[in-house]
Write a structure and sequence with these properties.
The protein is 41% helix and 11% strand. By secondary structure, it is of the alpha/beta class. Strands 3-2-1-4-6-5 form a six-stranded mixed sheet.
């Protein structure tokens, strides 16, 4: 089922990208944050242009939302690609200490090179960069060990750039999530919608929910990766794939059971349950397929 074209590019995102481009020349280190459920789809197409010759730390946030097998598979894939990912859960602080240490060490190495060229040491400027709602602000609050920036699990909370003093010679720039002007890859756009990494104004909730069910069925066939299709029956009372095969029909049936026949409200509930991990640890992307 097609979802229709998913596009979301509100004015504050365009403004944020302009501010970002103006501040990039001041930045020494880019801390890129991606969503563990969709690490490929949350890689910004302009990233290489923004990084250029800057230092780069790759953070995969929401580690808790995918299985340990998926973490291992992705970790190997990234390392084979020459990258050293930091696996974090900004919600409970998992992996933050290792990231903090790496950021400080990167800053110290940069200042050593400055001193070798006869330049004075200064606080190293780091930019947190990523799509909306991948957890950048929550990550900063964990690094600073107090709530210095607004953080919430919805897209578009951070609206302007803000410098935060981390200490130990490192300043962090919290930037709003930046989306590409167009979603040429609609499969990636669908995954961003499912993970709540773009605003709801960009898509139709019912069609996204139905495509989520189709995706679950496809993922269930992947060897070695367990996708909890059975939990749909446990949670909603009707199995998908036996008596009810069509996802649209399944959504209609469970809407009759749980939301007085309101499919839109049931679709929203289904997506919220996925986003809160009530359906189990589900990776929407896996390396090499």
């Amino acid at each position: 089922m097609k979802t229709g074209t998913i596009q979301w590019y509100p004015g504050h995102i365009a403004k944020a990208e302009k501010q970002l481009n103006n501040n990039l020349k001041k930045v020494d280190l880019v801390i890129e944050v991606r969503d563990a459920r969709i690490p490929q789809s949350t890689s910004h197409p302009h990233l290489e242009r923004w990084i250029k010759d800057k230092q780069h730390l790759l953070v995969i946030n929401r580690k808790d939302m995918i299985s340990s097998q998926a973490v291992q598979a992705w970790d190997k894939w990234f390392r084979d690609e020459g990258k050293n990912p930091f696996w974090c859960n900004a919600k409970d602080g998992t992996g933050i200490k290792q990231l903090h240490t790496a950021a400080i060490q990167t800053g110290q190495a940069l200042n050593q090179r400055r001193q070798a060229r006869g330049m004075k040491s200064r606080p190293v400027r780091a930019l947190t960069l990523g799509f909306p709602n991948v957890g950048k602000s929550a990550l900063i609050n964990r690094l600073v060990r107090k709530k210095v920036v607004v953080s919430a699990r919805k897209a578009g909370v951070t609206r302007s750039l803000q410098w935060v003093r981390l200490g130990q010679g490192l300043d962090l720039l919290d930037a709003p999530g930046v989306l590409p002007p167009r979603f040429d890859n609609q499969d990636a756009a669908l995954k961003l919608a499912l993970c709540d990494d773009i605003g709801e104004a960009a898509y139709d909730v019912e069609s996204v929910a139905i495509n989520f069910l189709i995706m679950l069925r496809q993922l269930a066939k992947h060897r070695g990766i367990r996708i909890p299709i059975d939990i749909l029956q446990e949670r909603y009372g009707i199995a998908l794939g036996e008596k009810v095969v069509d996802p649209d029909q399944w959504l209609t049936r469970i809407a009759e059971l749980h939301t007085s026949g309101n499919k839109a409200r049931m679709a929203q509930r289904l997506l919220d349950d996925f986003r809160k991990n009530f359906l189990g640890q589900i990776s929407l992307e896996l390396p090499n397929g």
